[in-house]
Specification:
Layout lengths: L4 E5 L9 H12 L21 H15 L1 H4 L1 E6 L1 H12 L3 E7 L5 H20 L1 E6 L4 E6 L1 H6 L12 E6 L7 H10 L3 E6 L9 H12 L9
Parallel strand pairs: 1-2, 2-3, 3-6, 6-7
Antiparallel strand pairs: 4-5
Length: 224
């Protein structure tokens, strides 16, 4: 039996060299897994042109090129990447399992709550918004198309494959309540609540314990 394709999706204004991406790449390498980590900042329009639809197309192109249709796939995602993982799993039956860390469900509502009506209105009229890009350590503009496009995607995708959510109870950017709602809607998904915030970098080892146990059916190499 061939091993499935493993894919990691980073968060909004993050990148493939994020701390969690590097951590899970290293841990999975110990189990014989080569974790693919595409850069979701790339694509038409660069970071400015990022939308959920564009990122989802990129994910599905990577899956198609990987041979996942024959071998299956496992997706791990953080924040926006976790939401993208859920979206992809709801559309692509070759995804056999999905791990979501602080997934950004109900994305437009979160932006509305964080920014407020006035900033959203200015974003719409000016066509762009300056945000902190954590990977590049500088301000970057994002098109209003990002917000507008997010309105066209389900806030809570229907995931039927096995799923694991890891979410910090002190997360103020994406409250754990969104993951509780999602888990209640998707019986195949288990939610683990952790004493951490949105970044989850202070509970990496704890998360790996959960992820390794959850993914054991897809990890063919023995533990080191």
């Amino acid at each position: 039996m061939s091993s499935p394709f493993f894919l990691y999706l980073h968060g909004f204004a993050s990148g493939p060299a994020s701390e969690k991406a590097r951590f899970f790449s290293a841990r999975l390498a110990e189990r014989g897994v080569d974790l693919a980590v595409p850069d979701l900042n790339e694509g038409e329009g660069g970071f400015f042109g990022l939308t959920v639809s564009r990122a989802l197309r990129q994910v599905e192109e990577v899956l198609a090129q990987s041979g996942a249709r024959e071998r299956g796939a496992v997706v791990i995602g953080s924040s926006l990447g976790g939401y993208l993982g859920a979206l992809a799993a709801s559309r692509n039956p070759e995804i056999q399992a999905v791990v979501m860390m602080a997934p950004a469900f109900d994305l437009p509502a979160r932006w509305q709550h964080i920014l407020g009506d006035e900033v959203i209105s200015r974003w719409r009229s000016e066509g762009k918004l300056e945000v902190d890009h954590y990977a590049w350590k500088r301000k970057e503009a994002i098109s209003f198309a990002f917000y507008r496009d997010s309105l066209g995607h389900p806030p809570y995708p229907k995931v039927e494959c096995p799923g694991l959510i890891l979410h910090g109870i002190y997360d103020v950017e994406v409250p754990v309540g969104t993951s509780r709602k999602f888990a209640a809607l998707c019986p195949s998904v288990r939610l683990v609540e952790l004493e951490s915030d949105h970044a989850l970098v202070d509970v990496l080892d704890r998360m790996w314990e959960e992820v390794e146990a959850f993914l054991e059916p897809w990890l063919f190499a023995p533990k080191p």
